[in-house]
Design a protein that fits this description.
This protein is mostly helical. It contains four helices and no strands.
Length: 92
């Protein structure tokens, strides 16, 4: 009886999806030199809120940690004085 012959060819795995270029996210506040985020400007703050009224995270907006904290504080202040809603059914 002979042994079964085995080969040492590992199976090659190829990624068939084309690579999409990843666009570098940047902090728009640092780029434009904005120091103060106005909590009274509701239209500007709507860019950082999703359809449900939640604050968008840094990984989506691309802002730095310093300015993400300022955005969160401005959104919370705007909610408190009723410029922005706490919960929205169809905000955008």
């Amino acid at each position: 009886m002979s042994k079964a012959k085995t080969t040492n060819n590992p199976m090659m795995v190829f990624n068939t999806t084309p690579e999409t270029p990843v666009k570098k996210k940047y902090c728009r506040f640092k780029k434009n030199g904005i120091k103060y985020i106005d909590y009274k400007d509701g239209n500007f703050l709507l860019k950082f809120i999703n359809e449900q009224g939640k604050i968008l995270p840094r990984r989506i907006t691309g802002t730095s940690l310093k300015y993400q904290r300022k955005i969160a504080q401005a959104v919370k202040r705007a909610r408190h004085i009723a410029i922005l809603p706490y919960v929205a059914d169809g905000l955008k």
